[in-house]
Design goal:
391 residues; mainly beta; Neuraminidase; 4-stranded antiparallel β-sheet; 1 helix; 10% helix; 37% strand
């Protein structure tokens, strides 16, 4: 018997139905998976897209920043409002001028920050006294060679010039509106005239007669003495607004300063009157804050320089040897504190915070090294600002 072809058994109806059902279920599951996946991918993206439009990423740019801030039309939900925005017509507070100092280095006058940084040349000037305005915007100086007073803005421009000026340090009004200077007079019989000139230029006006001049708060001016010898060497005039009050000092005057409530006067002779006196604005002597000269000193007191608060006085004792030595003392009275480490020291003024005295140290006439320094009234925190700076 030979083998024939093999045949598969024919499934019955129940088996067929079961296979059909399983196929349908598998198809339904497959379609559901496809739908769910499409929803997860495309449906969620479309739902979150509007939120993404609110986000505005920063853009890198090389353009110069604008002065005005950029305003975003559609801020994000996390953005917070600030109080820096100002309406176009709002009052803007001007930027405060940074405190400055002036000094001479070589044959040039410079202006710099109080610590000596960012120094910039202002003008050529080999000799002559100089002073920076209380608001640090201008410098006045005397050109010793031409006998001219020059006033120039710190930020540049052409200087204003006034002629026939004596080589004494110009004095600024407390509000920086004008400068006092002394006229150069060749006739010895004439009392030296003190004039004032507007800081922005204009006509010089005779303010009084005197060898010395000082300016204080609220427009107070002190001028005098009218001479260096005789009775006129004691005559001083206090000017407040339109009121002029002459007074006779206890002795020959060698220094003056104007304070908030009174005037200080240094007397160098007669011997029993030597010292520093406080005088009221009506010309009455209030008291004597220093009797005689500081210990070990001879000569006279000069260059009275009041602190911004008016509570501390810096001054120079000019010895019989011709050298200037610097001291400080409370205006209320007390023992003077010696601040000079070398024989010559000349007070120029105070730092803007009133904590330190600015001064030039060294005798340039004799070829000694000089420098601009600052020091606290008690002698501490001595700091050299500019080596080589001079009067």
């Amino acid at each position: 018997m030979t083998d024939g072809p093999t045949t598969k058994p024919i499934p019955d109806d129940a088996v067929v139905r079961r296979q059909v059902i399983l196929g349908v279920v598998a198809g339904i599951v497959f379609v559901a998976i496809l739908v769910a996946g499409s929803w997860l991918i495309f449906g969620r993206t479309r739902e979150s897209a509007p939120r993404r439009r609110d986000f505005q990423p920063a853009q890198v740019t090389t353009a110069t920043p604008s002065v005005e801030p950029t305003v975003t039309e559609e801020p994000t939900e996390t953005a917070e409002a600030t109080d820096t925005a100002q309406p176009d017509d709002a009052d803007k507070t001007p930027e405060k001028t940074k405190p400055k100092i002036a000094f001479r280095l070589g044959k040039t006058i410079y202006v710099a920050n109080e610590d000596g940084s960012e120094a910039e040349a202002l003008s050529t000037s080999s000799e002559g006294f100089y002073a920076i305005s209380p608001d640090w915007t201008k410098v006045a100086w005397v050109d010793k060679g031409t006998h001219q007073l020059m006033i120039k803005a710190v930020d540049g421009g052409e200087p204003f010039v006034a002629g026939n000026v004596a080589d004494v340090r110009p004095v600024w009004f407390a509000d920086s509106s004008a400068v006092l200077f002394r006229r150069l007079d060749t006739a010895e019989s004439l009392a030296p005239q003190v004039l004032r000139v507007p800081a922005d230029g204009g006509t010089s006006i005779v303010t009084g007669t005197g060898v010395l001049m000082a300016a204080g708060p609220e427009g107070t001016l002190v001028i005098g003495p009218q001479a260096t010898e005789g009775v006129a060497a004691r005559r001083v005039e206090i000017i407040r607004n339109v009121t002029r009050t002459p007074f006779q000092a206890p002795g020959n005057v060698s220094g003056i300063a104007a304070g908030k409530d009174s005037v200080l006067v240094a007397v160098h002779e007669p011997t029993d009157a030597v010292g520093i006196w406080e005088v009221s604005f009506d010309g009455g002597v209030v008291r004597r804050i220093l009797k005689g000269l500081p210990a070990g000193q001879t000569g006279s007191i000069a260059n009275l320089t009041l602190s911004p608060s008016g509570k501390v006085l810096a001054f120079a004792a000019i010895g019989d040897d011709g050298y200037s030595r610097m001291f400080t003392m409370p205006v209320a009275g007390g023992t003077p504190k010696a601040l000079s480490l070398r024989r010559d020291a000349y007070p120029l003024g105070w730092t803007s915070d009133g904590k330190s005295i600015l001064f030039i140290e060294g005798n340039q006439v004799q070829g000694e090294s000089t420098a601009l320094l600052r020091v606290h009234p008690d002698g501490t925190s001595r700091f050299m600002i500019v080596s080589g700076a001079k009067l």
